[in-house]
């Protein structure tokens, strides 16, 4: 019998293997613990969010945007009631599963209901997360009308959610467009007040969170969280819609009559910094804020769009020209450097260092006292005054009055302008700064300083906001905030500002701003004509001017200030005394009519001055057409077939809409005409008027009419001769 040998076991080897296995298990277990710890601690939020995204959906519910109102409660921007369609995609997928349907089965129906392309609906139904997983929600379309919303609801598809939405609407269209601004596709402020006060207007969005009922498939979803949106607050502006309407019409008239690039108008209360009206023409319709940019200059569509949206009164800088002379004058008065009786000799130019600087009136103004250099807008007089003041003192007052820095107006994109550093000002710089060249300003900057002259010396922050408010659950109005402007008192003295206001009234009554004179009202103002600077070359552009005027009334205690700027007038005349002052007269006349009495329902009308045309000898029908074209009413006396005379006589100036008398009977003094006021007319315009009236003329010089041998309003016979004196130097 053979003995079976026992198999040898290497216990040491076994021990090694067991140890290796144990350590392998330990290492693997340790790695697993580390991985689990990493997932549970480090990546917990990420993976939790991914999981939650797959079984929950979140839909943001926009708050109703607050209204924008004028100071009298007139609605300028409102939110109209519309609807939106969102997809709760988890619920949609459960609905499709329960009904054995696919995305393609419902995409066409939804597309037809909302008027979209089917492929666009499919894209939204198949929305993925960044991780690649199916999204829980998606927005299909915003701001649809009720009829489309009803069609979607009638489909009865689980997860297709129709809810209220808002659409921004501007009831007055282009009215106050550059101030109001506009909103983007998401209803958030894009420009103007909409952007400036977006936080107040937009409110707080609500949220709706839905989740799949994972335990019961027959329940599509449940709402786990719902937060009501908080509506935006109302923003009330300082603007007065009736004054704004006047300014809009005057600006449009200025744009058309002068064939200008742009016309800007601002009306303010100088005692509190409130802006009562602000307009730039051409403008845009904020209801369609991206339409019409093609008509503006720029190398790209974006540049053109920004030009269209720019509020020139706040965003653009320019050399102010002669309107800046009030700053030089008040500095001299404050420092006691000049008195009213001081004389200034103007020979038409002044040698300043190596430069010969001309006055606008190259023939010179002769000897003048202090208020006369303002009345005549004499460059030489102001250069001499600036020399007396000195660059240090002049720059001190320029900065004290707010130039070279933003005013803090509550509108976006305010420019600061450029004030040359004192140490860099040369002798010739001082001369040109004194009459409004070299430095640049914004219109709102200038008006802040001009208001200080009007109110007795306080520099007040200009502003467009009056208050922010909302209504509580009981319908009670709650004022949340009122605008409190920053005020720097006693920047100027009451005495010097009162003296300057007196000088400004003389300028309107007797000086270069006399075309803004209104009988019965005490107005102070100053015109200015400045050559435009080329932004590329830095030099002055030939034939391109900005003609502006600032005015205040009543002069003893001004209640309003106004500013008009005409950018590149191109209808023959460009001097502010000719093109801007008459606009200021129209603007102030209509504002006074509004402020002095119950405003007419016809406040949109701007009454122009009309020369009664020559219609004698024409048929009644021809005469009627001519008068209709110039907006004159008429009363016919007699039964003749042609016009034998008129009352007043042809050439007499009346307001449009005036009723004149047409005579058709026996001719009595039918050769009489009234000599019109041709001051400031171009040669062509003057010739057209005189030829129509049958008045002969002799022209002396070139440029614009500065004098006529027969006074305006004098009754003369047809065929009379009048001598017109012309000059390129007309007003400033």
Q: Care to describe what's here?
A:
With 732 residues, this protein is an alpha+beta fold. The chain has 4 domains: 30 residues; 180 residues, Penicillin-binding protein 2a (Domain 2) (Alpha-Beta Complex), CATH 3.90.1310.10; 355 residues, DD-peptidase/beta-lactamase superfamily (Beta-lactamase, 3-Layer(aba) Sandwich), CATH 3.40.710.10; 59 residues, Trypsin Inhibitor V, Chain A. 33% of the residues lie in helices and 24% in strands. It is built from 23 helices and 31 strands. The strands form 10 sheets. Strands 2, 3, 4, 5, 8, 16 and 17 form a 7-stranded mixed sheet that branches. A 5-stranded antiparallel sheet has the order 10-9-21-20-19, with helices on both faces. α13 crosses α19. The radius of gyration is 37 Å and the shape is globular. The termini are far apart.
